[in-house]
Queue: 2 jobs
Job 1
Amino acid sequence: MTSSLPQGVTRPSGRAPDQLREVRIERGYTRHAEGSVLVSFGDTRVLCTASVDNKVPAFLRGKGEGWVTAEYGMLPRATNTRSDREAARGKQGGRTLEIQRLIGRSLRACVDRKLLGERTITLDCDVLQADGGTRTAAITGAYVALVDAVRWLQSRKEITRDPIFGAVAAVSVGVYRGVPVLDLDYAEDSDCDTDMNVVMNDGGGFIEVQGTAEGHAFRREELQAMTALAETGIARLVDMQRAALAG
Amino acid sequence: MTSSLPQGVTRPSGRAPDQLREVRIERGYTRHAEGSVLVSFGDTRVLCTASVDNKVPAFLRGKGEGWVTAEYGMLPRATNTRSDREAARGKQGGRTLEIQRLIGRSLRACVDRKLLGERTITLDCDVLQADGGTRTAAITGAYVALVDAVRWLQSRKEITRDPIFGAVAAVSVGVYRGVPVLDLDYAEDSDCDTDMNVVMNDGGGFIEVQGTAEGHAFRREELQAMTALAETGIARLVDMQRAALAG
Amino acid sequence: MTSSLPQGVTRPSGRAPDQLREVRIERGYTRHAEGSVLVSFGDTRVLCTASVDNKVPAFLRGKGEGWVTAEYGMLPRATNTRSDREAARGKQGGRTLEIQRLIGRSLRACVDRKLLGERTITLDCDVLQADGGTRTAAITGAYVALVDAVRWLQSRKEITRDPIFGAVAAVSVGVYRGVPVLDLDYAEDSDCDTDMNVVMNDGGGFIEVQGTAEGHAFRREELQAMTALAETGIARLVDMQRAALAG
Amino acid sequence: MTSSLPQGVTRPSGRAPDQLREVRIERGYTRHAEGSVLVSFGDTRVLCTASVDNKVPAFLRGKGEGWVTAEYGMLPRATNTRSDREAARGKQGGRTLEIQRLIGRSLRACVDRKLLGERTITLDCDVLQADGGTRTAAITGAYVALVDAVRWLQSRKEITRDPIFGAVAAVSVGVYRGVPVLDLDYAEDSDCDTDMNVVMNDGGGFIEVQGTAEGHAFRREELQAMTALAETGIARLVDMQRAALAG
Amino acid sequence: MTSSLPQGVTRPSGRAPDQLREVRIERGYTRHAEGSVLVSFGDTRVLCTASVDNKVPAFLRGKGEGWVTAEYGMLPRATNTRSDREAARGKQGGRTLEIQRLIGRSLRACVDRKLLGERTITLDCDVLQADGGTRTAAITGAYVALVDAVRWLQSRKEITRDPIFGAVAAVSVGVYRGVPVLDLDYAEDSDCDTDMNVVMNDGGGFIEVQGTAEGHAFRREELQAMTALAETGIARLVDMQRAALAG
Amino acid sequence: MTSSLPQGVTRPSGRAPDQLREVRIERGYTRHAEGSVLVSFGDTRVLCTASVDNKVPAFLRGKGEGWVTAEYGMLPRATNTRSDREAARGKQGGRTLEIQRLIGRSLRACVDRKLLGERTITLDCDVLQADGGTRTAAITGAYVALVDAVRWLQSRKEITRDPIFGAVAAVSVGVYRGVPVLDLDYAEDSDCDTDMNVVMNDGGGFIEVQGTAEGHAFRREELQAMTALAETGIARLVDMQRAALAG
């Protein structure tokens, strides 16, 4: 599938409207974690580690179920201008909390928590370098780290049946000068009328859709075009996850 | 427009799929604020006040623009089980921050901040009683409080041209046993496969769309049916806002 | 009993020196709490809810005694000028802590904690609108919510003997231009030389007396006149509590 | 003046009902502060320092007035059982805030803030050893430190007219087995039915009266007897302050 | 042993290069703690209390070992300029945490934690007056308080064998105008090129060495001269600790 | 220079006593920062970025001097066991504060802050993977990032004269089974009797020396042997810094 911008309109990145940035998924990036993935969507680079803990939060204790959760952070100079270190400020900002809640919910959507048993897998997604789309890169990479952590549990015979069903990936879409475009980098995101983050599974089902009108409100047709574009992008990301996991 | 549930399926609330709860919008609920609205969506009751301050946040100082922001809170016993008071815990939770960011963004979408001038309008949305849909009720009520605050500014000749264009309202939609339904109460929300909050303006444009798969992922068709349902619900809410403001 | 101001002196509210504001006590104001009372002393409106929890704080565990405690909050725009939200600031101020400690102590003075058993009743007193005397209104309303919560426990046969003995109510008194006056509203409080909050039981005993010289120090005679005035006011408040509970 | 306990009743301390503990007021206890006083009420020892700063809080800036404020702290092992260090816990408790607000209000009652000019005097009251009555000892000692700080300002010709009028001192009173007693130590405080802290000036005027029923409610007669006892105790404390300042 | 400054160089304090300030160690300074020592190094005065608690931190539970830890604080006006109260600021600063970690490590170096059994001894070191060297005075005094607390445990037969082996003391050294000097006061510390804190035991072994170049980097020879000087100073401090404990 | 372990003693890493781990210094690791260096000491990897800000902290404003400061963080799963995220816990731990204070002091030792002018350079040192010696790797890498940031300032003609004099590097040394060894990895650090961090400049001067007895106290001879070993290690590190900066 291909699409094109209207005569004379060029994306700041020079990409075709439905073109992803170069995506790389490096497994085993650090050594201690049960899963450790450096995911890059162009210049956006996120280190996603999966840590297994044989405990569950208080609200799940004794229920025979596991938990999957995420934390998100941005190194102070991941961005163009240095931002305050949240640890030094003494609290995580609203944006951080919002993103880590999104990552956690998205990944829980592909886990059978009964099969996981009473253990917690924490996905730490730390942005080393930001250029737009950090949350969608984080979800896409964290899925691979999660699979690695589950494989580690299986290799040690701690669990027998695979608690993960399907795959989960995410991408952003937007409307740039009237044209729906895929996988916005920072420059494009800043210049778009609408920004939408879409999380889907490998069966084509939607897990999260979060669209925000930046400039003016968007129409039903734009919503549909953006979700269609997200579908094609996520299908390709799922293929890359599979390739990385087969590697 | 009417719709119906499949043979034998009844919403917990007994409502038709496209039926809103009883909505009430009471202006002037408290006396000190420039705008003060008690909004009820059924048993959900949110007190929305608008406060005018002749200052703007640091990042806007000297730019000749105003700011519109929101804070959200829930009284500890607004819910069935008492939750900890955020002031006592020493921080606002992620859900709170997420909601108040949503309310602020939604309302800024109908304000010309240049016309507002260098002042801030803060919308405090405090949930007195919760029964599902507190954030959509808050947005719907806060819009009315915002208009009242702007009228107050106009009545004092502090601003001449109205900085508000159009209206903003919000509603939740979901898929209950396969059927898209409008304006979920708490019992329905807990039992739905998908929960989506939609914010729109009075011109039929989307401002925010936030859909989350609770049970299993949702399909493109469900997404479209839910947004269509939201459109009809929000059109009716905008009518009620107008009626309240005319009152 | 009547009293009067010296020739030519009028209270800002126009009330007689020993006249309470209009007091209303509405039970069942919200639906989830075991006790829920909206109390109004004139324009001061406080929502008091009582929540039952089958646990006690650590220092009481295993002692066979219950606990009664209070939390106090003020909606940001309950007052004439918006005050910062304590949850957003990250801590409760000294005034808030002082008031909630006072409310808790006052209500514990009428509870046999052995009879309550190992459970905690939390009184949340949230000021929807402030016009002076919020702490005394809170105590007066919280007592009614507490009784309702205890009745709820009795109706479920969780406790058999009533742990509440007597009644507790509170009122403020002050000295306005040399004359002791009852139940100060905000305008009067700001203009008084002395402000005193008095908590009493229905047997005429004092539970708390907190007097503060605002302008100049007060004399022994003024202290006596103020406490006498408080006695008459509280007797009337206790009657209103009884009437509300009989309703 | 003497008084006595009923036949067979003895205060735990063995003192007569109207007898203060041994009071010592040592000026110049530490070297850096503009005023530094170690005050002892028996085994209660509080270090009170007065620090002068040529700034005022934001709410007073440009008004030509000064400010007097207090902070209170207790060393972790000032008490029989070690309590957590508030700095380590990350916040001051309600009791601490309540006491430091009381100390600040009490001392402001004897200061003409216009004459003080745009400067702040902070009274730090740190309890080295606690045996009941720490807040009343703190007020009594802080007054002396405040006078020393003002004298220091005068000696440097920073102010010409003395902004302090009169003196302020404080003492606790209670009802022990039916008898009003003066200046409770910890053992007596724990065993009293009523505990009252009284702050007065040297003219016999009341600045603060804070009485709390610990066991059962107290009667009007008891309130009067306690305030009368406080009057005699404070008169003696004011004499000791004068003697210390003359030293 | 004596040493001297080069012709024409005088320490600000007038002391010989290897001369300690006057050191005093007063046991039993406050009454509640199991060990309570006021230690003075000249005008630096630190109150060190030792508190015994029959619990250990979570990471040691059930291991049959005890714990020794320290907390450090400075009264706001211990210094020439008032510093903010850490409890009011809501956190302990980096310097405070660094010092209390040092004190804890230093004292654990002379304790057999198995012999101590499952209990914690907390050393609270609160600076009443600061004139340089507060951390070294704190370590030297806290050792004595620790011994007193252990003796208290032994006197109650809670432990039989003494868990303390040897003694621990500390002193600062520096290089002043090219000459190594012992036990810097504040004026000297501010004017030194190098500042080093040394903790040793009574067997001449080093427990901590922390040297910092203030002005220019220091040479190997200076490091050796400073450590030699520290050895002689600490030997004298250990003698004073012994004398105090024999008293 | 070579040295060897006693017959039959082998370092856990198999290295010779005076052998550094493989050190890599990669400049330009991320794209936004004025200096960005990934430094590796074996498996320890620290990302050091230098950020230039045209402001100074309040205590330096208007003095015509710049500031150099550091912040340190560890990704939650940089270590073998996941540690809590400091941003989520709401504060930086004592170890973090201690390390970042050390890094800042060390780098300020080679900067002429007058020549830097009124700007701040912040060195963010974030540990991606930890295997002992993170603080010494951080200092060594941060120096290179600092030089890059200064070159960036020079290339933009914002400063003319180079404010950096000399070089700063750091290494750890310890005593393993009686033998002084260089550059401890985590396994060695855990098994050493003494651990010392040394910061030096390229002229052979000491900037910081921090030695801690882990097991038993160390002797003067050991201290000298360790500092001698550090000298040789740091000389090699300074060579590598030069080579990297020449690259």
Job 2
Amino acid sequence: MFPNVLEVARKLIRERVQQGETVIDATMGNGNDTLFLAQLVQETGKVIAFDIQPQAIAKTKDRLEREGLADRVELKLASHEEIESLNVQAAAIMFNLGYLPGGDKEITTQASSTIRAIESGLRVLRPGGIMTVMIYWGHAAGEVEKEAVEAFCHELSQLEFLVLKYQYINQQNQAPFLLAIERRAQ
Amino acid sequence: MFPNVLEVARKLIRERVQQGETVIDATMGNGNDTLFLAQLVQETGKVIAFDIQPQAIAKTKDRLEREGLADRVELKLASHEEIESLNVQAAAIMFNLGYLPGGDKEITTQASSTIRAIESGLRVLRPGGIMTVMIYWGHAAGEVEKEAVEAFCHELSQLEFLVLKYQYINQQNQAPFLLAIERRAQ
């Protein structure tokens, strides 16, 4: 069977990230991707993870400590727009657009700040690095955000980036899909 | 780097087709996919390949003979709609929609017959089997055909099929993209 879209995103990241590299989880949520990335970069690597909700930070911190992975992770209670201020070269950046599963569905990512965060992320992405954007658009602001992100990606220079859209198109209920942006190696 | 869409299609097929199975090349063209499939199913397998242009048959026949693969291939000078009349269980079916590279660009696949051929193909696809549809839509009838095929795929039952759309979205010149339809295993 075709893999689900989250598995596809992780596979693309696994194929590109080396042990010891710096990676970013732009939308920590319940910390699933943070844990995945922390395992991937190993002890010598670094994960920088963002969320604006204290409950996301608390839950992720707890999970990382239980797994013995907290040493390599920096948790930031801040908007993912703050990627702008990072002075790093990231091998991978993960976004999950939508709301925190199990949290307040009224608190969602929003088109304008998401676009700014993606722009900032692309500036710190190393050559050959990858940004994955999982788009959960089954919420009030979801359709607007989806359109905005797709429109932004359509315009990215094909000399610098290659943007993959990976979607199962005969699904009901506005199934999530994946955008994966690879910065071309120089 | 992300693989090109043709490589993606072939990988999906390679992962699903067993030696000795029957597969279909719905749009023979210059025979590239016919040769690929003939190697894949090996001596005990069978490839049935369609084209309405005699030059496609002649060229593919010649290439197969030179490669020693002609024994397992049946070349049909007929529309891919004739898939309807086949009494087989196919493990894979490949479509390239557009015109014959290097041939007459006025002779292209057309929406209505393409949809009928895809429908027929899905009827003979075995559980767990896959149909790949490469859509080259940079020709006069291309946009109409693309829209029709996508609309058809959107409506396929998700209980029976899973339809993947795999597309690089920041490309110029109406770059080809892939639809891959997997019949769920029973």
